[in-house]
């Protein structure tokens, strides 16, 4: 009874020792018996001090990868993850074309039809050429100051962290697309003003949507890139076509021509691929090893479209797509000085005469792309680069305002939360903030090509429209 606190194993072991001691005592091996009795007493006193082993049911369940289970990370440790339920909730998207049917089609079919009809209507209108002249800084600052964030212009459009965004070039209607880490694509008609018609979510991908662009020649087409596939959402046919598929873990893409027929696609593990939408099949035309260990972004020069910029680990290089081959590619120029991982690199929008990069060493860098010489290095206005719990760190991107050759925007960790606008001289021109409406970091941002409209996306799937 005194040993009731011991585990079954310890009680059995103690019983065996005692029986052995009695056996040797019966053999009159007194010295051995005395020694064994001494060991028994010592073991017993030692065992009573040991903590009771945990039962099997008390042990924590082995943690599973939330990324593989397609489950949004929580703010507290997840002790149990129902893998079968997660798989049922987020099934793998089938190969091939997919109908443009939203997740909530059964409940809101008429509102979905209204949203898609709006997208089709504004895409049929020929967009006027944007003013190519760059306004002076004073007038530009005045236009920035006139942009406000209101509560009705904030909405949760996708379920998970925003990984990419695109804005329709229409001057009459604000239509925004957002892709999240679960493969969802959300469309939001900001201008409609009704809760039902406003936003709907589609599921064209199985993995996170890394990059999105409306076609520059036909905004009825929305191209979205996930880890394993590049798709084109064609609203005129209400279908998500599959353009390219592979296991290369795609990270980013950009159009090589104004007609959007060809694109350069980056892969997370380094190579880049050339994709031609006019050729049959789902394979790329060429996969080229450019010597990178990781490629996060690619960007085509706005004027000389044979040149593209690739950014990865600590590498930022300019290549000529005409001379790409499977192996042995050498860059035309290298933008050096980065000491840590580079999140993004983009040419300035009108002439491509500048390049802005964001690096994990907490610096923004401006390069002269004509001579590839560093013009300026200055500190980002924050304490650290934005990271996300339970996921790969993803620093915010610095993007150029497409209407302004010398100014770019970037999300900030500063309090109150804000999106900052810098001049290429390093001067801070404006900070978009609203203490009542903006309380999170907008690491992904997009600017309208002709209107004073800015959209910021955060890690919870919420969009903020200034």
TrEMBL record:
Presence of the UniProt keyword Repeat in the record: yes
Purpose: Specifically binds 5-hydroxymethylcytosine (5hmC), suggesting that it acts as a specific reader of 5hmC.
Matches recorded under Gene3D superfamilies: YVTN repeat-like/Quinoprotein amine dehydrogenase
Pfam families named among the record's database cross-references: WD40 (PF00400)
Family label: Belongs to the WD repeat DDB2/WDR76 family.
Entry protein name: WD repeat-containing protein 76
Assembly, per entry: Interacts with CUL4A and/or CUL4B.
Single GO BP term: regulation of DNA damage checkpoint
GO molecular function, one term: DNA binding
GO annotations of cellular component type: nucleus
Entry keywords, A to Z: Repeat, WD repeat
């Amino acid at each position: 009874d005194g040993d009731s606190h011991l585990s079954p194993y310890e009680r059995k072991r103690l019983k065996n020792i005692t029986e052995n001691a009695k056996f040797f005592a019966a053999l009159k091996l007194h010295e051995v018996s005395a020694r064994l009795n001494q060991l028994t007493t010592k073991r017993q006193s030692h065992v009573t001090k040991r903590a009771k082993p945990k039962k099997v049911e008390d042990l924590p369940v082995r943690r599973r990868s939330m990324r593989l289970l397609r489950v949004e990370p929580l703010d507290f440790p997840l002790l149990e993850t129902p893998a079968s339920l997660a798989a049922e909730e987020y099934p793998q998207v089938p190969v091939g074309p997919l109908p443009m049917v939203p997740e909530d089609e059964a409940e809101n079919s008429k509102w979905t039809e209204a949203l898609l009809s709006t997208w089709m209507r504004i895409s049929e209108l020929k967009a006027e050429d944007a003013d190519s002249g760059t306004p002076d800084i004073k007038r530009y600052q005045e236009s920035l100051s006139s942009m406000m964030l209101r509560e009705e212009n904030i909405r949760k459009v996708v379920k998970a962290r925003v990984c990419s965004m695109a804005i329709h070039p229409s001057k009459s209607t604000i239509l925004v697309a957002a892709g999240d880490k679960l493969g969802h694509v959300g469309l939001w008609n900001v201008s409609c003003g009704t809760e039902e018609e406003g936003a709907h979510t589609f599921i064209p991908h199985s993995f996170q949507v890394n990059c999105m662009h409306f076609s520059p020649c036909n905004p009825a087409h929305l191209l979205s890139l996930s880890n394993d596939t590049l798709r084109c959402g064609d609203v005129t046919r209400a279908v998500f076509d599959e353009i390219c598929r592979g296991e290369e873990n795609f990270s980013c893409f950009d159009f090589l021509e104004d007609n959007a027929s060809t694109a350069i696609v980056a892969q997370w593990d380094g190579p880049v691929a050339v994709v031609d939408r006019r050729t049959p099949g789902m394979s790329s035309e060429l996969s080229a090893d450019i010597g990178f260990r990781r490629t996060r972004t690619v960007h085509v020069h706005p004027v000389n479209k044979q040149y593209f910029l690739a950014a990865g680990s600590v590498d930022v290089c300019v290549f000529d797509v005409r001379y790409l081959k499977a192996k042995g590619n050498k860059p035309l120029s290298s933008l050096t000085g980065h000491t840590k991982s580079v999140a993004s690199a983009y040419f300035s929008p009108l002439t491509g005469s500048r390049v802005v990069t964001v690096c994990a060493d907490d610096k923004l860098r401006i390069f002269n792309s004509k001579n590839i010489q560093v013009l300026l290095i200055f500190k980002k206005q924050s304490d650290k680069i934005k990271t996300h719990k339970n996921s790969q760190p993803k620093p915010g991107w610095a993007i150029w305002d497409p209407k302004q050759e010398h100014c770019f925007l970037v999300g900030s960790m500063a309090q109150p939360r804000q999106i900052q606008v810098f001049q290429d001289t390093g001067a801070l021109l404006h900070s978009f903030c609203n203490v009542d409406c903006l309380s999170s970091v907008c690491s992904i941002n997009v600017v309208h090509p002709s209107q004073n409209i800015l959209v910021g996306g955060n890690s919870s799937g919420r969009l903020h429209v200034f």
